[in-house]
Amino acid sequence: MFNKISVKLTSGFGICLLLLMTVVAVNFQALQKLEKLYHRTVQCGEELELASDAQHIGEDLYQIIANSVINRDLAGSARLWTAGKKTALEKLARISRAAETREEKADVGLAGQAISDIVDIYERQMLPLIQRGAPVPGPLSEIDAQIDQRIDIIEISLRHFAQSVSRDAQATNANYHQVLNATIRSGLAISLAGVLIAFATSAWVTRLIVRPLREVTRAILGMERGEHPVQIAHKSNDELGILADSFRTMSGRVEKRTAQLTESNAKLQREIGERARAEEAVRTLNAELEGRVRERTAELTSLYEHLQTVREEERASISRDIHDDLGQLLTAMKIDLQWLKKRLPGDDARLAEKAGQLEGYFNDAIGIVKRISADLRPVLLDDLGLSEALEWYGREFTKRTGIACTVEIDCDCAHLDQDRSTALFRIFQEALTNVCRHAEATRVCATLEESGEELLLRVSDDGRGAREEELRDPRSLGIVGMRERARFLGGALAIESRPGAGTSVCVGIPLGKAPEGVAL
Ligand SMILES: Nc1ncnc2c1ncn2[C@@H]1O[C@H](COP(=O)(O)OP(=O)(O)OP(=O)(O)O)[C@@H](O)[C@H]1O
Ligand SMILES: [Mg+2]
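Above: inputs. Below: predicted complex with magnesium ion.
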């Protein structure tokens, strides 16, 4: 309870207030004393003034007496005498009240006796003579001498009194100034001491509160800068002590947590390093793999090119052999059969019938040989070019399958190189084969046209269409082959097909120079 900051502050403030009140009280007492002295000094001054004024009481009375003697105005002189006498007695009464010492009282007593003598002499002795009209020289002169004597007594005795009062006044005045100076000095000293003590007290109380606060603040700032460990020495039972204790606890926790975090961070850094190394290894492996894949792809590509070339050459060779050898042989056999048929006995109908049948078989065989030979390598493609070959193949397709096939050519393909002609023809063949095998179509429409720098072949049917999965079936190689042929010539193949909406195969091949080494 007594250790709380508020108690410390209140105590400090209370001590300062007490000191202030003490200083004020002491100064107030000194001022009161000074005020009394001041009144006394003023009073002394007044008394001195009165005393010096009173020295002339006798003269004032004598002035009235002289007037009454000279003017003989009894009524006026009586009024003046009454007023002068009253004034003189009042002044004497005031002086009597101011007299303090025995000598002063004696002086005032002498002056009072002299005034009453003057009054007595004037009223008892002079006034009757004046009323009777006595001349000035004579008894009045004698009485006048008595009055002069009393006036001197008044003046002398009151001068003594005035001198005594003056001494008192001077002493009082000197005392007043002495006390005033002493009061000012002591007041200043007490005030200064009070201020100094109050300042020291407030500084002490402030230090009591501020020092630990500063220590806590320094520690908090140190912690903010990340300094560890942060120490606080302050210990007390007040709020600052509680604050310092809490800070110590918190600092301990922060230190512990920081150590944990540092450890975790180091672990994380190690893991990141390991992961980076692993990623680097994976990247290296990937690069190696990619290199190998590229190499393998290049190998496969050239193998594919080679295979396509060999395949085309094989096809052409087989086609030639079938056409030239087998076709010639069959034709020769058919000619021989016709020769035999002409020499058959005329009466044997069965022989004639058999010969006719045999001729029919030969015709069929020759037709089949022609078709196979044309399928393998259409002579038209080499002799007349792509347009003729496409139109011929479309007609043959219709004949064979009964599916109407129209071929529209809108370009001059006479000078098209063999690679492109062969690729487009094979794509056309595969597209029509697919129509025959899968489309259930009644009509096929093929167009070949030039579009910018490209040659576009589109084969569209009105068949059942195909699902996406069918077109991407990994076991089917027809579409893959078409796409590969287009790709090797720098072109691309796209298939638009939806179930129930037919299929459209579109291939675009650039008309520029064929890629080097590509021969399909
Ligand atoms: N014109 C079409 N109409 C409907 N379906 C088609 C058409 N063309 C292709 N398909 C579908 O796409 C699949 C893939 O055709 P692709 O030519 O690749 O293989 P395939 O003809 O089945 O076999 P092959 O490898 O002998 O050509 C076909 O099995 C068929 O289901
Ligand atoms: Mg196919």
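The first helix runs from residue 5 to 54.
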